[in-house]
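Try this one yourself first.
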């Protein structure tokens, strides 16, 4: 069984703003593209254009309609990927040591050459964040784009996970959550960032920022209303003649 490090030098992870995410799935597509072309075995698809398509994804977006106790229902888009837990059960359950947590940055990875595809890590993950690639027979998971964030051949602006770099709404943030002075840690403190299913005791590094309360629709001003108002109460000229003619039909 693989042992977890007692501590890590950093806690690299994601902060996802559920108030900002629009559910466009750009993060899903960019993640699929980058991880199919680069790190490890490609993310395969089965019967992609057939009756029962399936495939391996490291990042997925689920959408839920939530009805608050007061006010109108809200549509919440919920991205989900590996949370790089401090107490990661997927690591300690691995019989070959293929799953491990890095000491230098806390990122949880899979050594695919040692993975036997037994599925124990997927069974132990309470978040459903691991997927067995049917073509390769190995377990796949989010790597935080470890092959991007340290790649000095890339421009500095691109040394972020692909999903963060791609998000058009700016809903995804990346940084060291072990540093209280980092931008992501300040964001979590300001917005009340939360753990996903804290009762599981896994201490996930990734955090979620809750949706902000919405204003009442009745109190909102429709900025398009003046543009949609009729130009004249009564038709004039040709339109007046046409209106009267149609009334006689």
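Now uncover the answer:
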């Amino acid at each position: 069984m693989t042992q977890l490090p007692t501590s890590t030098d950093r806690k690299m992870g994601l902060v996802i703003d559920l108030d900002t995410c629009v559910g466009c799935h750009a993060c899903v597509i960019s993640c699929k593209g980058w991880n199919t072309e680069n790190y490890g075995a490609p993310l395969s698809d089965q019967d992609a254009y057939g009756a029962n398509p399936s495939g391996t994804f490291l990042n997925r977006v689920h959408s839920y309609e939530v009805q608050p106790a007061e006010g109108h229902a809200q549509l919440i888009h919920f991205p989900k990927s590996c949370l790089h837990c401090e107490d990661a059960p997927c690591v300690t359950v691995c019989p070959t040591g293929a799953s491990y947590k890095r000491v230098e940055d806390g990122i949880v990875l899979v050594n695919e050459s040692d993975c036997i595809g037994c599925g124990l890590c997927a069974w132990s993950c309470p978040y459903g964040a691991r997927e067995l690639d049917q073509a390769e027979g190995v377990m796949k998971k989010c790597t935080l784009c470890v092959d991007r964030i340290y790649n000095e051949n890339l421009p500095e602006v691109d040394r972020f996970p692909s999903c963060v770099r791609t998000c058009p709404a700016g809903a995804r943030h990346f940084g060291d959550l072990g540093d209280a002075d980092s931008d992501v840690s300040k964001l979590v403190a300001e917005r009340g960032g939360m753990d996903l299913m804290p009762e599981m005791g896994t201490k996930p590094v990734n955090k979620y920022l809750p949706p902000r309360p919405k204003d009442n629709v009745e109190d909102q001003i429709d900025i398009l209303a003046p543009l949609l108002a009729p130009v004249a109460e009564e038709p004039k000229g040709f339109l007046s003649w046409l209106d009267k003619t149609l009334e006689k039909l």
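Discussion: The CA atoms of residues 84 and 108 lie 5 Å apart. The helical segments are 26-37, 89-92, 120-124, 146-149, 162-166, 183-191, 225-228, 237-247.
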